[in-house]
Specification:
Elements (H helix, E strand, L loop, with lengths): L14 H10 L2 H8 L5 E3 L9 E4 L2 H9 L3 E3 L35 H6 L10 H19 L3 E3 H6 L2 H10 L6 H10 L9 H26 L2 H9 L4 H11 L5 E6 L3 E3 L2 E3 L4 E5 H5 L27 H11 L1 H4 L5 E2 L7 E2 L5 E2 L3 E3 L3
Parallel strand pairs: 2-8
Antiparallel strand pairs: 1-2, 3-5, 4-12, 5-8, 6-7, 9-12, 10-11
């Protein structure tokens, strides 16, 4: 670090080139940030913005999310190079005017992100709709010899869960799904902040679900354990958000001068909270590259705009698919996560016992 609190350009690339590299593999840049004592100032590019502060250590990310002087930045799309158009929108995070502080390691991030009272312990009718949808989707696959689970399962179940949580009739699921991807008029009236959160959450859940399934299908012992004990799904979901974050970052803007561990951020400056990097911080999660749903320690910051909605989706909708006879990855296929703003496998080829 230089005396001014900036990293030399040789240490961290400018944002436009950084985005391309992060899309391939963000882990080397997570590790670089973990070595720094606080926020890192990254320069912008000519004609492409004024740079941004990067926050990647677990403790620093938690402090930023708990800081009332940092609010969601409505101009996230202005961050050069860091928007890939995959679906998460500006505004993931605390809305302007919210000032509640974090109160606990596992509880605070969910409170920061939540926009409505939709929890994983959903009312029975919501859980029932999601469970029935899981059975319908799994039943359609059961007679097949092969499938791509991304368009045929992962892209549908989150829309069903979101619709049930918002009180939308099941027959409007397709309209909700199209709106989450393409925008336009919403299929039901929603406050602006909730509409943004809903669209981002649906996309993030779909990619996290694909990552979760890809991980289990490459680890037969864990897959068998979850089949035998569905209650493990909660831990599998939490570890998926840590290890394979579907919404890896959140842009905040300082509405006043704020001090974070290791440095101060001036009013008006932007802070890029790397939620994915926080989950890979070895100070909080020893051996972070190991995917381990039995991991002890604090709950990670959920890299998801609406983590309880995602947990509801997998808790009630995933068990029917895991019970499909012969479910396994297609020979020679390996799941691969891609993307910057929303990240996960775009394909998940499997063979089935049909």
């Amino acid at each position: 670090m230089t005396a001014s609190g900036r990293l030399p350009r040789s240490h961290v690339p400018a944002l436009a080139s950084l985005a391309v590299r992060v899309a391939r593999d963000p882990v080397p840049y997570y590790r670089l940030l973990h070595r720094e004592p606080g926020p890192v100032r990254v320069p912008g590019t000519a004609g492409g913005g004024d740079g941004i502060w990067l926050v990647g250590r677990d403790a620093d990310v938690r402090a930023a999310l708990a800081e009332p002087g940092l609010v969601a930045d409505a101009a996230t799309g202005d961050v050069p190079g860091l928007v890939d158009g995959a679906g998460l929108l500006a505004g993931e995070g605390r809305a302007e005017g919210e000032t509640g502080r974090a109160t606990g390691a596992g509880h605070a991030p969910g409170r920061v992100f939540a926009s409505a009272d939709v929890r994983a312990d959903a009312p029975p009718h919501v859980a029932g709709v999601v469970a029935r949808a899981g059975h319908v989707l799994a039943g359609r696959l059961g007679s097949r010899a092969s499938a791509d689970l991304v368009p045929e399962f992962c892209d549908w179940l989150p829309a069903v869960a979101l619709g049930a949580a918002l009180g939308l009739p099941y027959r409007r699921t397709e309209a909700l799904r199209r709106w989450c991807r393409a925008g336009g008029p919403a299929p039901l009236p929603l406050p602006d902040a909730l509409a943004v959160r809903a669209r981002g959450a649906e996309r993030a859940t779909a990619y996290a679900l694909a990552s979760l399934l890809g991980t289990l299908l490459t680890r037969p012992a864990h897959l068998a354990a979850v089949r035998d004990e569905p209650a493990l799904i909660d831990a599998v979901w939490a570890e998926t958000l840590r290890h394979d974050p579907p919404a890896p970052y959140l842009v905040l803007r300082a509405r006043e001068r704020v001090r974070l561990p290791g440095g101060a951020v001036a009013a008006g400056e932007r802070v890029l909270c790397l939620l994915g990097a926080a989950g890979w911080d070895p100070a909080g999660y020893p051996d972070p590259g190991r995917w381990d749903p039995y991991r002890a320690g604090p709950a990670p910051v959920p890299a998801h705009p609406w983590p309880d909605l995602g947990l509801l989706t997998v808790r009630y909708g995933l068990p029917p698919l895991l019970g499909v006879r012969g479910l396994a990855l297609a020979p020679g296929f390996a799941p691969r996560a891609v993307g910057v703003r929303v990240r996960g496998p775009r394909r998940l080829l499997v063979r089935l016992g049909g």
